[in-house]
Amino acid sequence: MATAVFLTGFVVTGAYAQETIKIGVTQPLTGAFAASGNYVAQGAKIAEEEINQAGGVLGKKIQLITEDNKSNPTEAVSTVEKLITKDKVPVLIGAWSSTLTLAVMPKLEEYKVPMIVETSSSGKITTSGNPYIFRISPTSAMEAKAFQPLVKKMGIKKASFLYTNNDFGIGSANEYSNMLKTNGATVGVMETMDPKATDFSAQLAKIKASGSDTLFVTTAVEQLTLILKQAKEQQVKVRIISCGGSNSPDQLIEQAGDAANGSYHTAFFPPWFPEVTKNPEVSKRYMAEWKKRGHNVGGLTEGFRGFDGVYVAVAGIKAAGKAEPEAIRAALWGVTVKGIYGDIHFNKEGPAGKESGQNVPVVYLVTITNGKVVKTSF
Amino acid sequence: MDELFQHFLNAIILGGTYALLGIGLTLIFGIMRVVNFTHGELYAFGAYCMYALVMIFHVNFFLALALAMAMGILMGAALEMLLLNRLRGADIDTTMLVMIGAWIVMQNMEQFIWSGVALSINSPFPANPLVLGPLSVSWNRVYVFIIALALIGATYYLVNRTRLGKAMRATFQDRDTAALMGIRIDRIHTATFALGSGLAAAAGALLGPVFVVTPTMGDLAASKAFAIVILGGLGNITGATLGGFILAFVEELGAGYISSGYRDAMGFLLIILILLMRPTGLFAQKERIG
Fold this sequence. Notes:
The complex is a heterodimer of chains A (378) and B (290). Chain A is 45% helix and 20% strand. Chain A is α/β, with parallel strands linked by helices and 378 residues long. Chain A has 2 domains: 21-138 and 279-358, Rossmann fold (3-Layer(aba) Sandwich); 142-267, 3-Layer(aba) Sandwich (Rossmann fold), CATH 3.40.50. Chain B is globular.
């Protein structure tokens, strides 16, 4: 009896495997970035089901194989190795944080499998000469450049920085501080924090003493919540601007309450006014499905990254005409996908002959007023 | 100068909670010789209990703290009776592996039940801070500090002035003789583990509303608690209390005047230096040998 059950199970899996095209996803489903990683995975799942309902790609259904990289670079490398060697996925999506993405990049080159980078912003990812990288999220440099006209309009004279001491934070603080210097503002103090830290009293005391009018913060939403609360507690009266787009203003309003008022946030997808996005019909469809599934509304600003990632991977497979890594890599250069990030296509970036693909999304700046997210009036 | 005073104020307030985390662990470490990797998870457990009580069941904020601590004590007693009791006499490696397993299971259970999204607990304190001239501190943190000191005081009293405390100290000094004198070592172990766990849960329930509640919050708390215990000397409550304050000052001033990115490293650097000079910790008690 046991044997019979086992055999049936085996046959079913075997048949299923033949009919699907696998796409590997590596995300931080547990550990420090678990909240964001799960949102990205949920967004990817929505795209997977939409695509399969519409008949899949190349006559086959797609199947996402999602692995947990545990917010840990070593684990991230193992997930990619497992997805490529065991599941034989021809294309990957990952790996949320810049540090995690940078960790897996050598494996992509070793096994010659392309990866769609859906979140990471460190410049190094697309400038280090890895031809298997196709990034749909903006770099810190793009964000800083988009911010440039606002320096004068917002009246920023002296700005300080508080950022996580990892690839994401350091990359962002460097780009923004250089941009500010070339636009006539001075830089106060550059304070770092461990990505797991919860108490920022020492940094905030220093920032308060620096006499800055603005504080740029680069980290994920959990630390940002605490920074807003603690800045209020220590009466650090500066304009706080969060960079990097992983700031979930809805969650900030819910958790930091009053302390969130008056803060500014860069966003790569504004679910509060989807009509301003390049493809509003796609944005609205994604939002409706997200809400229908009862997912946390605060996660909309992360989930869309996974959603777009899957559509881009599938467009690559379709353009390649076969589910083979090299063919997909070559085909990705030609695709244009109407996504939430905008009309996604790839420009060449990095050393000649080994360029990575980089999309140019729109960057939005929103502010929180009276517990509501509103467009900035600049 | 204002900045320096603000750093001092921050360090004193932070030191109170560090001391609370440290004494809970030092009791378990000192009396039971168990490397308790679940200490941080009991801290997170306390915070999640507080969240459930205050935000879901709308229990009074102050009553919720007492209930969360009681749940921590029960959880600690359950862990001790289910796992550690069976491992009595097992070597330290086995116990350590079991405790690491319990830590991983508890952390994953937290994520399974509550998801990875950070949760916040509303406190009844005013949003505007207590302002003392150029300095300011939130009312919630002042409350945390006062309760932490009260709990530390109560633990001192329990260990030094009660029959149970006497039995704990006797077990710590020489468990075989204590057993021969009729002390129920098993019960002392359960009581010690429950008490230490209760203190960790109280720390979590106190700090949950100050910070946010996440499944990984216990990791940092546990590594700090271990640092404090090693700094103060194993099993030494006074050492753990002072160790908590020393760690807070080193971190706060180190972050303020040397480098904030290495805030958490500062404390561990200090521990390495102290252990090189005083291998048994700053305030180690003399232990009877042989």
